[in-house]
Amino acid sequence: MDLATLIGLLGAAVLVGMAVILGTSPEVFMNPTGLLLVVGGSLFVVMAKFTLTQFKFAFKAAARAFKFQLPNTQESIDELVELSKLSRKQGLLVLEGQDVNSPFLAKGLQMLADGFTAEMIQEMMGKERLLTLERNEAGGRVFSALGEVAPSMGMIGTLVGLVQMLANMDDPAMIGPAMAVALLTTLYGAMIANMIANPIADKLWLRMNQEAKMQQLWIDALLAIKGDKNPRVLEQMLTIYLPPERRVRSDEESPRDVPGEST
Fold this sequence. Notes:
The chain has helices at 3-23, 32-49, 52-61, 64-67, 73-90, 103-113, 118-167, 172-226, 231-238, 244-253. By secondary structure, the protein is mainly alpha-helical. The chain is elongated and about 90 Å long.
């Protein structure tokens, strides 16, 4: 569970809720007409921008903003170094069926065990990486579009409410409900965009970049293992994926090359 996403969204919702409760009755902020216009209208407009498959997948992908967790980079590097040592001692066939924490990496290890060439591994795993990026990008784009559309639908609701109010100026009983629609639809649109859609979209973009980086790390490691690189060389290659301060610490803690081992 990503606590930053959960705490951030819940915290914002609680603060807005407290402002509503402490200021006046919460019922004042409930307007079914405005909700129907902004929420329903926004979803239908966003659906029109994408395919039905992309639209449905986006809401499944939204769960990644809350519970998706990639392996720790340093732990993944250590795991790959151990796999490299194992393959040098017992051959690439030993990599078949190794228990690893990623289906993507498991697929690459199986390709090594099956004797695929380095060129085939790079091409096939690169395509797999691009397809994963496309799927993840679709989810981010849908929520980004929702963040753009919701305030506009709120403004449309405001205009509808103002027209209704002006058209019924001779009936005081109609002015209040029309004004409520005019003001609350703007509020609903702003809340959907800034408290739901945009944060989830940004987190999905972040997840996409993190996963793409990790997959590239795995591809580099697979090619190095295929090329029978020294595990020490492999470790040094992969430390570029660590933050600069972690690279220095990793270099200090890493053991020296074993004498007699070739690179």
